[in-house]
Amino acid sequence: METILPTAEEERAAQMLHALGSPVRVAIVHYIVEHPGCICNDLVLRFGRAQATISQHLAVLRHAGLIEREHDGHTASYAVDRAAFGWLVEELQRFRPGLE
Questions:
Q1: Listing from the earlier edge strand, what are the strands of the sheet with 67-72?
Q2: Dihedral angle computed from the Cα positions of residues 37, 76, 39 and 49, in that order, rounded to the nearest 10 degrees
Q3: What are the structural domains of the chain?
Q4: Which residues are bridge partners to 68 per DSSP?
């Protein structure tokens, strides 16, 4: 019997999907898409969560490669990595032929 191991692409997709497995993180991504350049405090105020909690969610999304952080002095702003989301959509499209 052949042993099947996940490819690097499958591992990357799984990490991204895992990061999006939290409704709060999905909502954070939606907010960042609509408000590129937002800062953590914007998210804290809108989501009513502790700064440490929001920072933790942002770290998971960054680690998965879904968002980017840019520093301007002491302030960090966030934007969605459009190329990463495009790649993930393409990767998910690979399921389509077997589902039709």
A1: 38-39, 75-80, 67-72
A2: 150
A3: 22-99 (1.10.10.10)
A4: 79
Predicted model pTM: 0.90
Residue 28 contacts residue 58 (beta carbons within 8 Å): yes
Beta bridge partners of 79: 68
Query: Which residue, chain included where needed, has tokens 């990490």?
Result: 15
Written as six digits, the tokens of 64 are 């998965």
Nearest Cα residue to 42 out of 88, 78, 89: 78
| Tens of pLDDT, residues 8-54 | 999 999 999 999 999 999 999 999 999 999 999 999 999 999 999 99
Nearest to 93 by CA among 32, 33, 9: 9
Amino acid found at 19? A
